[in-house]
Specification:
5-stranded parallel sheet; Rossmann fold; alpha/beta; 129 residues; 19% strand; globular
């Protein structure tokens, strides 16, 4: 069963995402309330199949987190879904400035159906690689 790491500082949103992923998609979840906690988790060897990542986080933001994992050969292949209240075009522009290309960006609020479909699509891409 796939493991999804949810990186979200808003506890209500994190709990909702975890609930939908566990109960509707039937995947295991792990929640980190900051990019620092998420990165420490990855460095300790907990490697998820997918990361759902907010951009606006206290301390290290989501884009800095992506930059760090893209520099690590063990971590750079992890699929990421950005889940942010920022406009999709703004997020893509900020990522492209750092040569980071993410296919899956969901704007908050997203429907549970869109979330599950995007997760399944990203995990399917993992299996093809």
């Amino acid at each position: 069963m796939a493991l999804i790491l949810i990186v979200e500082d808003n506890e209500t949103i994190a709990d909702s995402l975890s609930f939908f992923v566990k109960n509707f998609a039937r995947y295991n979840t792990l929640v980190a309330n900051s990019a620092e906690v998420a990165y420490d988790t990855l460095r300790k060897g907990v490697i998820p199949d997918l990361i759902i990542l907010d951009i606006r986080l206290p301390g290290m933001d989501g884009i800095d987190f992506l930059s760090k994992i893209h520099r690590d050969t063990r971590l750079k292949k992890i699929k990421v879904i950005i889940h942010s209240s920022l406009p999709v075009d703004k997020v893509r522009e900020d990522l492209e400035k750092r040569n980071i290309f993410i296919h899956h960006i969901l704007e908050k609020p997203s429907s549970p159906g869109d979330l599950i479909a995007t997760i399944q699509e990203a995990l399917k891409e993992n299996r093809k690689e």
